[in-house]
Each structure stands twice: as structure tokens, then as C-alpha cells.
Write a structure and sequence with these properties.
The protein is an alpha/beta fold and about 525 residues long. It folds into 4 domains: about 280 residues, TIM Barrel; about 30 residues, no CATH class; about 60 residues; about 120 residues, 2-Layer Sandwich (Double Stranded RNA Binding Domain). It is about 40% helix and about 20% strand. The chain contains 17 helices and 16 strands. The strands form 4 sheets. Strands 1-2-3-4-5-6-7-8 form an 8-stranded parallel barrel, surrounded by 9 helices. The protein has a 3-stranded antiparallel sheet with strand order 11-12-13. A 3-stranded antiparallel sheet has the order 14-15-16. Helix 1 packs antiparallel against helix 10 and helix 3 runs parallel beside helix 5. The longest helix has 26 residues. It is elongated, with a radius of gyration of 33 Å. The chain starts with 15 loop residues before the first strand and ends with a helix. Bound molecules: 3-methyl-2-oxobutanoic acid and zinc ion. Zinc ion binds next to loops. 3-methyl-2-oxobutanoic acid binds next to strand 5 and strand 6.
């Protein structure tokens, strides 16, 4: 196999991005992906400019072998690596799987730390040195591009690690990966490890050094960037930071840290950052691992602002509270999350965005209603605001308005409603029972406003997600004599309150129609004035 070794840097400041979502990422408990899902992820990684894709561990299963082989066949630009333990059968199988790639790589590893040598490998340092020389040479016979990793490198003495690296380079490895397998290192320490090993090994300049940091102490990205300062020019990482235990360094964070802070991190990568959000969503979907809301770069709150001060600043100049644009990571646009901390400025902007222009009084009224809603509901979505303003406009002229509603619901009936309505400004309260809380509520309305109109439709749906979502209720009332009908809609976090308001809205519409009908000589459908007697 004499394919050219891709994944080589264009200049000394390029940090190669080695993605191991399909290998280390897939090792996250519960993150197994299907064959088709792996192909889809690999295609996107290739397209977005990832330099090396570790497609799997071919010896692990037939499925892994087939996925690595197929990804190798399909990859257009990226180097395709497979992982192999320092075992002859693993390496041969890995060579078989990656050989189809335009740019294949065998990635073989062995433990080097005293604790692993004693308890896991049960081998001496000298024996492991021999294994390194033999396995790297075998891999090199199968593939021109060989990466060697020292598992648990950060808990290995610099002196022994340097001897191992020297052996691997002599046997033909062109990439030397020194993982922080257990996520134990801190930035200064890992920078020093790479600096010293590179200084100790005579042929160090014949290999690209690589960092592979786990996130057990939440330091994986910081350690990877410190490693770059120590001379590393390949960083191994995963989309969404997926990986064993607490995961690996997150690819999106590495790429954006390097891009955003190029003033102090004088490197660059070949990754198209505008595809990061898509990659994150895809990996989250196929691995069934949700992305933490406040996850850097790709979390759904990464470009969301709720506090009034931040929203006001953002409306004046987005650089006040954003160090990168959502566009730059393909995240659409900044969202000013409407909540109880939002101020008038943000609410006005949101209304304009939604196409509303309200006069001062109507705006003030809508703002107060919005604040009330935000106090009761965690997330106020655009749809909530639309429902709130629409309802506000619709009820402005209503003669019958709901003042309060208390409902006793539950399994032991009869269910009862205590309702107070304002009819032309006069309050009236009744109690009614019914076959269920909605029936009791509608009976209470009927008790205050007797009418002939029949319920022709009652529909409830959640305007937004979650158990605190606004319920939007539609009620259609039909007059049996004239056959005309009116539909009322209302939204409220309380389904029964929304139901009562929707019913009253339909009733008010019938009343308006009645008044207009009288002018046009049409029949009465209901007569609010007559209801109240002399
Ligand atoms: O964490 C680790 O040490 C690894 C190696 C197999 C590269 O994943
Ligand atoms: Zn790992």
C-alpha cells in the first residue's frame, strides 16, 4: 500500500484535526451508531475539512470492520485511520479495512505507564519497547502512514516515554500521539511533557506530535491547546466532546478557540467552522446524546441572551456580549430569549420582528401581559408572544371578559368550576359542576350567560414544547337556528383558563355579529342585554 500520506500540514502553524467521534466517541456508553449513521457522520466530517477521521476499531467487530472499510472507500479528502492494539492480528485487520482509502492510516497503540505495565499488560519496560518496534514495523509494512500512541502517556516518566517515542519513530511511525488517557494532566504539565519529549528524541522532527486529551477534570480542550504550545500539530478530538467516560476534547471548541483567539493562539485549522452546528446536531441525533444547553459553541444557549442588560447591549452592538457570531459556526442567528429578565427594548424589537406595530397603550398592555406570562412560564417563545398579542387585540372590545376561574378537578367527581365574568364591566360569579373540568367551566359560562349556541368544536394544542407550554384552545359555537358559527381562540399556560377564554371569545364574536345582524335585520343569536333582564 503506497498511498500518499495526506493529513500533512500546509505550513508549520497548521494544527491537523483528527476526529475520533466514530471510534473514541462511539466508546461512550450508549452512543453506538449504526453502519449508515457512521457513513453519514464520516461524509460530513470529510466535507467540513477534518484532516484525519478515525473511523473505528476494525478488530472490535465485523460491523466496525465494514464501517471502516466503507468509510475508507468513500472518503474524498480526509485520511482514514483505523485503530489497532499492539497485536499482530489487530494490525493486519486494520490494514485490510483502511487499504481502500485514498489516504489510509494505521493507528496502533500500547500502554506505557508503570501502572498499566504492571497491572494490565504485566510486561516490563524492555518488553514493551520491543513490542513497539515490532508492531509499528508491521503496520508500516502494510501502510505508509502509521500513527503510534502511548496509552496513559501523561502518567509515564518523561525518560521512558522518550525511549518509547524514539523506538516508534525508528520503526516508521510518522505521527506520535501522547494521550492524556485518564484526563489527569493540567495545561502546564502537558505542555512540558511534549516540549521535553520532543527535545529528548533525536528524530523528533521526523514525526508530527499529537495530543489526545480526555475530559475527566474538564481540562481536555485547555490541555490540547497547551499541547499545541508544546509543539503538537495534531489534536485528536470529537464532535460534542463525545468519548470514554467524561469524553474527549470537543472538536468545535478546539476549532473555534484557535479561530477566535488567533491573536494568542497563532495556529490555524482546515475545518470549515460554519459546518460545526450541523455536525453537532447530526452526532447528537445519531448517538442519542443530547447536547448540554449551555455547551460552548453548539449548545442551544450558546448565542442566546436573556438578561435585559445583555439584550439591550446586543441590540446596540452585538460585540457587546458575543465574541463570535452565530453565523460563523452555522448556528443561524443570535436569539434574544424572551423571559422575565427581558426589558421593553427587547420586547419592542421582538414584536417588530414578528410583524406587530402596537400603539403606546397597546404596547404597554402587551408588555405587562408578557411580564405576567414570563413570571409563570420558564420559556416564552415567539408563538407565545403571538398568541398573547393576538388575544389581546381580539379581546380589546369584548363585552364579556373572564375575571377569574377556579376549578376542582381530579378522579372524584363531580368536577366544579367557580367563575367570575365581567359583563359590560359588571362582575358576576357562579359555581357550576360538570362531567369533567372543561364541562364544569362551560356550564359556569352558561349559567352567567344563558344562550342557545351549541359547542361545535373544542380543540387543545400546546403552542410550544414542555409541560409549562401555553395551551392554545379553539372553540367553535354554532347557533342552531341561523346555522351561523363563530370560532374563538385563546392561549394560557392553564388549559382550563384558555378554554374559558376561547369559549368567551366565540361568544363575544356571536354577540358582535348579532349587533351587526340587528342593524342588517338578521335574527338574534344571543342577547347579552336581554339576559340581564330589566
Ligand atoms: O485515550 C486513549 O489513550 C486512547 C488511545 C487508544 C489513543 O483512546
Ligand atoms: Zn481516548
Amino acid at each position: 500500500m503506497n498511498a500518499p500520506a495526506n493529513g500533512s500540514a500546509k505550513d508549520k502553524d497548521q494544527v491537523l484535526i483528527f476526529d475520533t467521534t466514530l471510534r473514541d466517541g462511539e466508546q461512550s456508553p450508549g452512543a453506538t451508531m449504526t453502519f449508515e449513521e457512521k457513513l453519514e457522520v464520516a461524509e460530513l466530517l470529510d466535507d467540513m475539512g477534518v484532516d484525519i477521521i478515525e473511523a473505528g476499531f476494525p478488530i472490535a467487530s465485523q460491523g466496525d470492520f465494514e464501517a471502516v472499510s466503507e468509510i475508507a472507500k468513500r472518503a474524498k479528502k480526509a485520511t482514514i485511520a483505523g485503530l489497532a492494539r499492539a497485536i499482530s492480528g489487530d494490525i493486519a485487520r486494520c490494514g485490510e479495512a483502511v487499504k481502500h482509502a485514498r489516504f489510509p492510516r494505521i493507528h496502533t497503540f500500547v500502554s506505557t505507564s508503570p501502572i498499566h505495565l504492571e497491572h494490565q499488560m504485566r510486561k516490563s519496560e524492555e518488553e514493551v519497547l520491543e513490542i513497539i518496534a515490532a508492531t509499528v514495523a508491521q503496520a508500516r509494512n502494510l501502510c505508509d502512514n502509521v500513527e503510534w500512541s502511548a496509552m496513559d502517556a501523561t502518567r509515564t516518566s518523561i525518560e521512558y516515554l522518550s525511549r518509547c517515542v524514539d523506538a516508534a519513530i525508528k520503526a516508521g511511525a510518522s505521527t506520535i500521539n501522547l494521550p492524556d488517557t485518564v484526563g489527569y494532566s493540567v495545561p502546564d504539565e502537558i505542555r512540558e511533557m511534549f516540549r521535553q519529549v520532543r527535545e529528548n528524541v533525536v528524530n523528533a522532527d521526523k514525526a508530527v506530535f499529537s495530543a489526545h486529551c480526555h475530559n475527566d477534570l474538564g481540562l481536555a480542550v485547555a490541555n490540547s491547546l497547551a499541547a499545541a504550545d508544546g509543539g503538537v500539530r495534531q489534536i485528536e478530538c470529537t464532535i460534542n466532546g463525545l468519548g470514554e467516560r467524561a469524553g474527549n476534547a470537543a472538536l468545535e471548541e478546539i476549532v473555534m478557540a484557535i479561530k477566535t483567539r488567533s491573536d494568542v493562539l497563532a495556529y490555524h485549522t482546515g475545518v470549515d467552522a460554519a459546518k460545526l452546528t450541523r455536525a453537532s446536531k447530526l452526532v447528537s441525533a445519531v448517538s442519542s446524546f443530547p447536547v448540554q444547553y449551555n455547551k460552548a459553541i453548539v449548545g442551544r444557549n450558546a448565542f442566546a441572551h436573556e438578561s435585559g442588560i445583555h439584550q439591550d447591549g446586543m441590540l446596540k452592538n452585538n460585540r457587546t456580549f458575543e465574541i463570535m457570531t452565530p453565523d460563523s459556526v452555522g448556528a443561524g442567528k443570535t436569539s434574544l430569549v424572551m423571559g422575565k429578565h427581558s426589558g421593553r427594548h427587547a420586547f419592542m424589537t421582538k414584536l417588530e420582528e414578528l410583524g406587530y406595530k402596537l400603539a403606546d397603550n397597546a404596547f404597554q398592555d402587551a408588555f405587562e401581559r408578557f411580564k405576567n406570562l414570563a413570571d409563570r412560564k420558564k420559556h416564552v417563545y415567539d408563538e407565545d408572544i403571538e398568541a398573547l398579542v393576538d388575544e389581546n387585540i381580539a379581546t380589546a372590545e369584548d363585552r364579556v371578559k373572564m375575571v377569574s376561574l377556579t376549578v376542582i378537578a381530579g378522579t372524584v367527581g363531580p368536577q366544579a368550576a367557580t367563575l367570575t365574568l365581567s359583563v359590560d364591566g359588571v362582575h358576576e360569579t357562579v359555581q357550576a359542576t360538570g362531567n369533567g373540568p372543561v364541562d364544569a367551566t362551560f356550564n359556569a359560562i352558561h349559567a352567567i350567560i344563558p344562550h342557545e349556541a351549541k359547542l361545535a368544536l373544542y380543540q387543545v394544542h400546546a403552542v410550544t414544547e414542555g409541560t409549562d407550554a401555553q395551551a392554545e384552545v379553539s372553540v367553535r359555537l354554532k347557533d342552531p337556528e341561523s346555522g351561523s358559527s363563530a370560532t374563538g381562540r385563546a392561549a394560557d399556560p392553564d388549559t382550563l383558563a384558555a378554554s374559558a377564554k376561547a369559549y368567551l371569545s366565540a361568544l363575544n364574536k356571536l354577540q358582535v355579529r348579532r349587533e351587526r345582524g340587528q342593524q342588517l335585520g338578521m335574527t338574534d343569536e344571543l342577547d347579552l342585554a336581554a339576559r340581564r333582564g330589566p
